[in-house]
Amino acid sequence: MSNFFDEQKAQSLIKAEIVSKYFWAWAKIVSKNKQRIAYIDLFAGPGRYKDGSATTPIMLLTQVLKNNDLASKLVTYFNDADKSNSDALSAAIAEIPEINKLKYPPMVQNFELNDEFVKGVEQVNLIPTLAFIDPFGYKGLSMRLINSVLRHWACEVVFFFNYSRINMGIMNDSVMKHMQALFGDDEAHKLRETLSDLTPTLRESMIIEHLSKTLMEQGRRYVLPFTFLTKVGNRTSHYLIFVSKHPLGYKIMKEIMAGKSSRTSQGVPSFAYCEAHEKMPLLFELGRPIDELESMLMHYFSGRELPMIKIFQEHHVNRPFIEPNYKQVLINMELKGLIDADPPADRRRKLKGKPTMGHNVMIRFPHV
Question: Would you identify the CATH topology of the domain 289-364?
Answer without folding.
Answer: Arc Repressor Mutant, subunit A (1.10.10)
